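for the writeup, i need someone to sanity check this before i put it in the appendix. the sequnce is what the collaborator sent (i think, or maybe the updated version? ugh). structure was predicted straight from it, no edits. if anything looks off just tell me and ill rerun, i have time this weekend
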Amino acid sequence: MTIAYNVYSTKDYNKFKHFLSNREVSEKHVEKLISSEGFIESIPYSPIKVTPSLRILDGQHRLEACRRLDIDVHYIIDPTSSQYEIKKFNANMLTWSYTTFIKHYAALHQETYKLILEIMQRENILLVHLNPILDSCAKRSSWKYNYQLKNGTLEFTEKEITTINDICKKLFPALKECIASKGKDLCKPIMTREYLKAFYYFYSEDRTTFNEILQKMKICSHLFPYCGTFESAKQALLQVAKWKTPKTSMKGLNEQHQVKKVSRSRTKVARATA
């Protein structure tokens, strides 16, 4: 059965509201619409779709383009649809990134996706850096993990959630310290998928080695080579764990410690005689 909708038009762009579960407006896509041939002529035949409360289900980029061109936006009111169908409406339009899917399902209060978004924001990392950890913890094939992530069916047990949170709180601050110490260019390889999966392996299978790697990677003399496989990344991280601090360095560290100790003693004496 075909449903007929009335088509309305307006220049009151602010009357429309966005769903948090919809993707963010892409500046690039808006500019592409504005510059595309025949866009203005097509507007009456391509209305945006909204709910009875004027929340946008489909067409937020067209709305923004109309706003900038100062032309009427045409819209239809669909009383049968909800925010849970936004992904369906957008499936054949601008491609959604995995991060968009994360934000979409997090806004729909799905706990796994809220956790992923929280970690990304807390550690200030991209999904591409978190994915190897999630993928490893999920213990399922990459294609199945990606399929579940996009379809809103990705779930973790309480134990897995605890593991993901703990490793992220330890690993990513240590990686940032390493990058700050050695420079971004030298540390690019350790942010690749192979290394991140290797970090997860040591965390889950050999916590002592994992801690050794985190402590030494910012001061060791080893370079981090690009590794094409998980096994080669494991071996590279093992070399970091086995690295021995040179005696001269240890001597220097001990001397610094003694200087600080004497300085503190003198400060105490000065305060006592003041």
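The radius of gyration is 27 Å. The chain has two domains: 7-90, 98-247.
thx in advance!!
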